[in-house]
Amino acid sequence: MRLDKYLKVSRLIKRRTLAKEASEADRILVNDKPAKPSKELKIGDLITINFGKKSLVVKVTSLKESTKKADSELMYEFISEETRTA
Question: Which domains does the chain possess?
Answer without folding.
Answer: 3-83 (3.10.290.10)
